[in-house]
Every structure is written in C-alpha cells, then in structure tokens.
Amino acid sequence: MKQAAAKLRRLFSEQLILLLVMCMERYPRIRNLREDADLTQTQVGQAINVPQRTYAYYESGQRMIPPHVLCALADFYQTSVDYLLGRTDAAAPYPKPLK
Predict the structure, then answer these.
(1) Residue 81 belongs to a domain with what CATH number?
(2) Residue 7 falls inside a structural domain
(3) What is the pLDDT of residues 61-97, one digit of tens each?
(4) Cα gap 77→14, rounded to integer Å
(5) Is residue 46 assigned to a domain?
(6) Range of the domain at 27
(7) Does 84 fall in a domain?
(8) What number is the average pLDDT over the span 21-33?
(9) CA-to-CA distance for 52 and 92, rounded, in angstroms?
(10) Among 95, 98, 78, which residue's Cα sits nearest to residue 36?
(11) Any domain includes 65
(12) More confident residue, 13 or 90
C-alpha cells in the first residue's frame, strides 16, 4: 500500500511539473522589440502603466499578459497583438476600423 501511494505521489508530482512548464508561456517578441528599441523594462513598463517587476514577469512567461496590456504593447510598438503572440510574422498593425 505504501509503495502504491509513493508511486502515485511521484506520478502526480511529475504531472504537476509538466503542467506548470506547459502553462508558462514565453513572449520572446516583446523582449526582442524592447531590446531592438534600446529600452529598459522600466521604460516600457512606464509607457504602458505597468511596474517593471510585472513587465519582467510577462517577458519571462511567469505571468500571462492580460488583454489590456497586450493591446497597450501593440499600440506602443505599433504592431498587432497577433504579432506579439507569435500568431503571425507580419509586424504591421491592422488597419483602424472605419467609424
């Protein structure tokens, strides 16, 4: 019984670690855009109204980027959210909707 419980705990631990790794989404494009513009995390954070530490978590994938922050980053870098997320290689922003 103890062996089965230990095996189950080990399996659960391995699955939990795998799940955590899979959930950590990295955002290399926001780091690349920042570095290409010779900006610090603090400067970008101030521009989009996010603390430097929070922005660092976004870049490293330790936190998911909320939609309003993604939109602010896309506006700041004049690109699309899809480009930031790696869903397209076209860096040009989408055209603004007609009113």
Answers:
(1) 1.10.260.40
(2) no
(3) 889 999 999 999 999 999 999 999 999 999 888 888 8
(4) 39
(5) yes
(6) 22-93
(7) yes
(8) 76
(9) 26
(10) 78
(11) yes
(12) 90
